[in-house]
Automatic annotation (TrEMBL):
Region ranges (Disordered): 1-38, 648-667, 680-701
Keywords, alphabetical: Membrane, Metal-binding, Sodium, Symport, Transmembrane, Transmembrane helix, Transport
InterPro entries tied to this protein: Na/ntran_symport (IPR000175), SNS_sf (IPR037272)
Localization (cell): Membrane
GO biological process per UniProt: amino acid transport; sodium ion transmembrane transport
GO cellular component terms given for this protein: plasma membrane
A molecular-function term among this protein's GO annotations: metal ion binding
Protein name in UniProt: Transporter
Transmembrane regions: 49-67, 79-100, 121-146, 203-224, 236-263, 283-300, 312-333, 432-451, 472-490, 510-527, 548-571, 591-615
Organism: Amphiprion ocellaris
């Protein structure tokens, strides 16, 4: 191993702050010599931790975003591209966050502040983005609760169009669209025609949102001790449902067509820059990078936990879940497309029968199949006849293209609340399947929501002792604040704000956060030192390839993603999809000026903590450096704040501390590793044991 310098150059000092280059952080040892932190909660078991990480990273995006991207971007070719980016960008960054959280045993604010006080803003940005996501994510959970509540009736309320009591006819908006679209836009959301028409509050959705926040609050009220128990169900249940749907779906007519469409590779998409951008974005969000939740969860791990294996395992489970969900989605969409195409054939055959009764049916172009029995006519047979004689039958007879129906890809809420509900209504015992599906969505959303809230609460409790002492009050207050702000999404125009937050509030800030995380580990702290610390934890050294992935590949990929996302936002004016009640159809509208200002404000609020934290630390250091009267007082307090924070007011026993020695096989050097979490102190590199005890007394430790 190459010997490293001791960070004594002025440039390194300017980044890390005074004293860091000459100090080593060591842990508090328990009575048995093992490193402990009695104040910090811990996972009851490894399976509990894995379920929490999987539950957070596997969310609604795996079910309704990944399948859509495969659908739109070349099927199997997109999957290969996704796996490539997952291996060279996703897994290394995921491993980096796991290792940082586990070694320092702090939330996102404490981790980056520990590397350098100038980087504390990274953690605050992560908290802001987590709060944004929590606001709108819980609205989706509220929608799932509403649909699940409406699934306990037969027939399902979205199975047929309602009757207008005044005209005794089918409601026009429903007749012009479909029963599922009408139920979603009119009954569930009661949506306005644009974001500029706010409308009144939707009382039912407000109640569902209150219920959603109450569930989150109750599950999080005792920290990971309570949320982890819920994880046993919320993380596992979606897999049970997906496998049930997969088995049931394979029995459906059209399943094979759907799977074929999914895996058929279109390799030409690899030349499209936008496809690379979409694949990188999906890798980024699928793993939950930058939220701080990965760091928070791993900070409750034992020090010697194999976080490298965890990174590979969770990333693999995440990808396989996306593939499983895509199989289910494409099977269901194949079944739906085939049903639509068969209804089209039956309708056209009915029109041909009418034509036969008024015209000579002995014409040479007349169909050779039995038109009186539509069930006996296959789609390929009908299309073969139509391709030869379409010009002779007039415009009323149309083509029935199965692939064209499959091409009408749906994502997000359109997939879950329109396409899937339409298919559920066709199943025998439809209320059972509908309840199962929305219970799955509810659990997917909750497990991700728990991780998101942990990304907010853990850093705050770690860095503000007052909040740490009042965990319950902080949790309940955060959920109450989330509900109050979330009322924005329960207006009739609320769905448009959900779309705005989903598209713009997190993307750029999260990419910026991960860029600074990578810079701080790879260039500020140093990849060699980081790998050394991981070696101490794991008892073996990770492959050197991580050094180059962190320093160059991941960083360049994130910068490229940031530039591509920013340019797309600048050159393509942000738009949203609105529902027009009079035409009963969707249309694309541009955001008004005030909405664009709101988008910019959301991005700035989440991104500004990074430069503000850097400037604040610079000014604080300059004030100490240029104030002789403060040098001994404030300087010492600043020094203690940055490097000797303790979670207990009790003085630490000096005999429980020991600096690493040559006999331990660890060279004295500045260390990132905080083997026991919050209890640590400043030790000179080359002092004797007696001088260390004197130093403890001098510093008040």
């Amino acid at each position: 191993m190459t010997e490293k310098s001791s960070l004594d150059c002025p440039e390194d000092r300017s980044w890390l702050g005074e004293g860091q280059s000459e100090a080593q952080l060591t842990s508090v040892s328990g009575p048995d010599g093992a490193e402990t932190n009695d104040d910090r909660p811990a996972w009851d078991s490894k399976i509990q931790y894995v379920l929490a990480q999987v539950g957070f990273s596997v969310g609604l995006g795996n079910v309704w975003r990944f399948p859509y991207l495969c659908h739109q971007n070349g099927g199997g070719a997109f999957m290969l591209l996704y796996v490539f980016l997952l291996l060279i960008v996703g897994v290394p960054l995921f491993f980096m966050e796991l290792a940082a959280g586990q070694s320092i045993r702090q939330g996102s604010i404490g981790v980056w502040k520990h590397i350098s006080p100038k980087l504390a803003g990274i953690g605050y940005s992560s908290c802001m983005v987590c709060f944004y996501v929590a606001l709108y994510y819980n609205v989706i959970i509220a929608w799932s609760l509403f649909y699940m509540g409406n699934s306990f009736q037969y027939p399902l309320p979205w199975q047929q169009c309602p009757i207008d009591v005044t005209t005794n006819d089918t409601v026009k908006e429903c007749a012009s669209s479909s029963p599922t679209s009408f139920f979603w836009f009119r009954k569930a959301l009661n949506i306005t025609n644009s974001i500029e028409e706010s409308g009144e509050f939707n009382a039912i959705m407000t109640g569902c949102l209150l219920a959603a926040w109450s569930i989150v609050s109750l599950a999080m009220i005792k920290g990971i001790k309570s949320s982890a128990k819920v994880m046993y169900f919320s993380s596992v249940f979606p897999y049970v449902v997906l496998f049930i749907f997969l088995i049931r779906g394979l029995m459906l007519d059209g399943a094979i067509e759907g799977i074929t469409y999914m895996f058929y590779p279109k390799l030409e998409i690899w030349g499209n820059v936008q496809v690379w951008r979409q694949a990188a974005t999906q890798v980024f969000f699928a793993l939950g990078l930058g939220y701080g939740s990965i760091i928070a969860y791993s900070s409750y791990n034992p020090v010697h936990n194999n976080c490298h294996r965890d990174a590979l395992m969770v990333s693999g489970i995440n990808f396989m879940t996306s593939v499983l969900a895509s199989l289910v989605v494409f099977i269901v969409l194949g079944f739906r497309a085939k049903n639509i195409a068969l209804r089209c054939v039956a309708k056209n055959l009915g029109l041909l029968n009418l034509m036969a009764s008024s015209n000579d049916s002995s014409q040479h172009w007349w169909p050779w199949f039995n038109m009186t029995d539509p069930d006996s006519v296959s789609i390929p047979e009908y299309r073969e006849w139509y391709s030869h004689y379409s010009s002779m039958v007039g415009p009323k007879i149309t083509d029935c293209n199965l692939e064209e129906e499959m091409n009408k890809g749906v994502e997000g809420t359109g997939l879950a609340f329109i396409a899937f509900t339409e298919v559920m209504a066709l199943f025998p015992a439809s209320p059972f399947w509908s309840t199962l599906f929305f219970l799955m969505l509810l659990n997917l959303g909750l497990s991700t929501m728990f991780g998101t809230m942990q990304g907010i609460l853990t850093p705050l409790m770690d860095n503000f002792s007052l909040l740490g002492r009042h965990r319950t009050l902080l949790t309940v207050s955060s959920c109450a604040l989330g509900f109050i702000i979330g009322l924005l999404f329960t207006q009739r125009s609320g769905n448009y704000f959900v779309t705005m937050f989903d598209d713009y509030s997190a993307t750029l800030p999260l990419v910026i956060v991960v860029i600074f995380e990578t810079v701080s580990v790879a260039w500020v702290y140093g990849t060699d030192r980081f790998l050394d610390d991981i070696e101490v934890m794991l008892k073996w050294r990770p492959p050197v390839v991580y050094k180059y992935l962190w320093k160059y590949v991941c960083l360049l990929a994130m910068v490229g993603l940031l530039v591509a996302s920013f340019l797309r936002m600048v050159f393509k004016r942000p738009t949203y999809t609105a529902w027009n009640q009079s035409t009963a159809s969707e249309m694309t509208l541009e955001y008004p000026g005030w909405a664009l200002a709101m988008i910019v404000m959301l991005i700035l609020l989440a991104s500004l903590p990074v430069p503000i934290g850097y400037i604040h630390s610079m000014l604080k250091n300059r004030q100490v450096r240029h104030s002789p009267s403060l040098e001994a007082g404030v300087g010492q307090e600043l020094h203690r704040e940055l490097y000797t924070k303790c979670s207990s007011t009790d003085q630490l026993d000096s005999n429980s501390h020991r600096a690493p020695t040559e006999e331990d096989g660890v060279h004295p050097r500045p260390a990132f590793l905080l083997m026991a979490g919050e209890h640590y102190r400043l030790l000179p590199q080359q002092e004797e044991e007696e001088e260390e005890e004197e130093e403890e007394q001098d510093t008040g430790l």
